[in-house]
Fold:
Amino acid sequence: MDKIDAQRRRILLQSAEARSVRGHLTAPKCASIKWFAKVFESRACVTIRALGWLVSPFHLFSERNYFNRRTNFLLRSFLASTVFFALLLGCTLTNSAAFAQRPAKPATTDKTAPKNEKVEKVDKNQKNYTAQQIAESAIFIYGSRPLLTQIRRNGVERGRICKPTCDVPGKTEEASYERKFVRGDSVDKDKIRLDQKMPTLEYSLVYGGGQLWGIINGAAFIPRQDAVNTFLAQHRHSIDTFLRYKENGSTLSLVGRDKQKGLDLYVLDVVDKDKQSTRFYISAKSLHVLWLEYEEATDTGAPGKYTRRFFDYRLAQGTLVPYKTVLMEEGKQTQEIRILNVTFGIKLDDSLFKSPEA
Structure:
C-alpha cells in the first residue's frame, strides 16, 4: 500500500508541475525565468539559454521569411540581367557574322565612273580663288548647270522694250515683245525669234543657223545693220555667255577683285571661240552678275564701250532671272528691257524659226 501511495503522489506531483508549466507558457509575460530554471534544472533538462527561443518564436520566423524573399528577389534580378545581356551579345555577334559574310562590292572602274561634273565651290576660308571656282559657284547659285540645261532648254519671254527708259511715259519709244527660243549645244546653234509690236509697226527678227533675217507682214526682209548689231550683241554678250561658258568652249580668266560704290566684286573675262570678250562684274556676297561690259563697233566704225546692268533678280521655275536690264553706251542709257513673265519648258514648233521663203 505504501508503494501504491508513493506512486500516486509522484503522478499527482508530475501533473501539478505540468499544469504549472502550461500556465506559464500561456502567459509568457507573467512567467518567471528563475522558476523555469529551477523546474528544468531539477529534471535534468536544458538550461534557460536553450529555452530562449521560446520567448519570441514568431519574430524569428518573420526574419527568416524576409531574408528568403530578399534573396529570391536578388536572384531573379541577377538572372534577368544575365539573360538580357546574353541575348544582346548574341544579336551583336549574329549581325557581325552576317556583315563579315556579305560579299564586298567590286571597285568602280574608270569605264563605269559617273560622268557628272563636280561643282567646284568657293571655300570661304580660302583667300585666293580661281576663275573657275567663282564661275561654278555662281552657276550653282543661278540654279546649277543640270537644272539650267533642263529647264531653260526652250521657253517664251514677254515684256517691254523702252528707249531710253521705261520710267518716263510719253517721252520714250516703247514696244512690247515676245521672245521665243530653243537652245542648241552652244550659243551659235540657238534658235531665237523676237516679235516686236509698236503702235505703228509689227515685225520679227529670227536667228537660226548662224543667220539673222526679218519678217514683216508674212514676208522676209533683210534688217538694217544697226538692228543686226544690237540683236547679235544682246545674244553674244549676255548672262548666258557666262553661265554657258563650258558649252560654248569659252575661256575664263580672273582679272581680280574690285570695290565700286561699296560693292565687293569679282571681275572675270570670258572669251568665246570667235575671240569676242565680255567682262563680268560679280557680287562677292551674292555671286549675282551685277553688270557686264564689252566693246562693239559703232555706226562710225569706231569701237564703242557698252555696259549691260541687271536688276530685280527673281526665281523663275527654280532658276534666277533678272527682270530688268539696262543698256548703256559710253555711260549713257540707251535701252531698258523689263520682263513681264517668262515660262520655260514650252514646246515650240520648228516652223517658227524658218524663213517664209524657205
Observations:
- The chain is about 30% helix and 30% strand.
- The helical segments are 2-26, 33-42, 57-101, 131-141, 145-151, 225-236, 239-243.
